[in-house]
Amino acid sequence: MQNDFKPAACFTQHNSSVEVADLNKTSQIISQAQREGRKVLLETEAKAICMDYAIPVTTFKLAKNEDEAAKFAEQIGFPVVLKIVSPDIIHKSDAGGVIVNLNSAVEVRSACRKILENAKKYNSAAKIVGVLVQEMAPQSTEVIVGAIKDPQFGQTLMFGLGGIFVELLKDVTFRIAPVTREDVVEMITEVKAYPLLKGYRNTPPADLDAIIDILLNTSKLVMDYPEINELDLNPIMAYEKGAKTVDARIILE
Ligand code: ADP
Ligand code: MG
What we know:
Layout: H1 9-16, H2 18-23, H3 25-35, H4 43-52, E1 60-63, H5 66-76, E2 80-85, E3 98-102, H6 105-122, E4 130-135, E5 141-150, E6 154-161, H7 164-167, E7 172-176, H8 181-190, H9 194-197, H10 208-224, E8 228-238, E9 243-245, E10 248-252
Antiparallel strand pairs: 1-4, 2-3, 2-4, 5-6, 5-8, 6-7, 8-9, 8-10
Helix pairs in contact: 5-6, 8-10
Bound molecules: adenosine-5'-diphosphate and magnesium ion.
The site of magnesium ion has 2 residues, from loops.
């Protein structure tokens, strides 16, 4: 079964209209999803939009079978992460659709089979677009950048630190978009967990400029595309130099 699933039309069609796609990739991706009646963009699509807005993401390639997954893993370099890509599976780990830290082609092949098997168990009717092979981002301080379209205030940005800080302590901050650099600096410094970003014990200081740029670029993205109802960059690994978005979700109106 794992050898005959088809790649989504959106990936092949991009190639047939290269000029247009290159001119405005984000518009292309959004209108393709709308035409197909999909509100939740695939991770590949959300990350392609991020790239369009200079938001750094993990390198990725969409494999349509096990052989391709192994080949792409070699090209990307080990360790890699494999993830299910399906319009019918939004929370991938809930479906057993994420396997991290794969260190060889053999491991990739067996993880690929496992992910497809898990997806089938989770939802036998799920349309499978492929398996996403991506570079494994080294562990670091995790931050979250989000956007939500508030019925009253419009596009609103969110920032917080990952894990328990958001989930348990609700240590997050909001600003109405568009935001300025000053707004963004305020957002970052006003969360209670901010001292962690400045460096604490074994944790080195995070590259604040990289986080500032992600917030500014996210603001621009949601202002350019009012049809984006929700955006979630969760988590983003914040490094001493740079940052990397590990998972991106975009939901349209
Ligand atoms: P979902 O949120 O849909 O369940 P994610 O893509 O966020 O799936 O993956 C779940 C978790 O796996 C992430 O929160 C992160 O801890 C880890 N992970 C996913 N992709 C990577 C990656 N490329 N590098 C490192 N860790 C990853
Ligand atoms: Mg996630």
